[in-house]
Amino acid sequence: MRTDAGLMNMYDDYYADGVVAEKRAIAARQSVAHIRTVAGNQKFDSVIDIGAGEGAVLAELHASGFAKDFSAVEISPSGVSAIKARSIPAVRSVDQFDGYKVPHPDQAFDLALAVHVLEHVEHERMFLHEAKRVSRKLYIEVPLELTSNLDRSIRMSGPYGHINFYTPGSFENLLKTSGLNIEKMMIFAHDIEYEQYLSGRAKGWLKYQIRQNLLRFAPKVAVRNMVYMAGALCSSRPGSAIGIN
Fold this sequence. Notes:
By secondary structure, this protein is of the alpha/beta class. It has one domain: Vaccinia Virus protein VP39 (Rossmann fold), CATH 3.40.50.150. The chain contains ten helices and seven strands. It has helices at about 5-10, 20-40, 55-65, 75-85, 125-135, 150-155, 170-175, 190-200, 200-215, 220-225, and strands spanning about 45-50, 70-75, 90-95, 110-115, 135-145, 180-190, 230-235. A seven-stranded mixed β-sheet has the order 3-2-1-4-5-7-6, sandwiched between helices. Helix 9 (about 200-215) crosses helix 10. The longest helix has 19 residues, at about 20-40. The radius of gyration is 17 Å and the shape is globular. The model is unreliable at about 240-245 (pLDDT under 50). Its EC number is 2.1.1.-.
């Protein structure tokens, strides 16, 4: 199984334009904060970023001392080139892949990451099965764009290659039906840096307050009407506890 040729062509030069580098760096800091929050005190020596983009998350993880060794696989040639250009000392390998076959042996890594990848993937369960094959634990993060205004989500995200749209429930079901045990799952609002980057200082602050408070006081209403993110730490071992916050 390979990713559709049309999608492959779309991602060929996906990361060649450096104009949005600042946005990606802000988003990476946000995602790394989520990974640390969900993982808690757990330690990981080896990490693979599957669908690593241009390496912004890897750079943040390395800078914060998250693990000793990192690897990356990415579908886009421009992404692979951008990761290599960063020359991150702890990154041991960077490979282009076809979206479904990771060139590493079983259980090679303590943790695999798929951060804002699943929304782009044609065959999600195949992707997740391969991710869990090469790792002992898996952190997955997706945007929750299946809101009451789905048409807007499709208009906004479709040009960036989003073909799957999730609610908290559909995301949880996807993980469970892929043979994963959810150790912890959390829903996040965008942080203030990201909101202000997108909307400006005043409007961004207001959107941050609305999104955060709606999630805190009326979470079901929040995810039905606004876009959030869900992050989940999973394992394939039987008997893991499920906790959703």
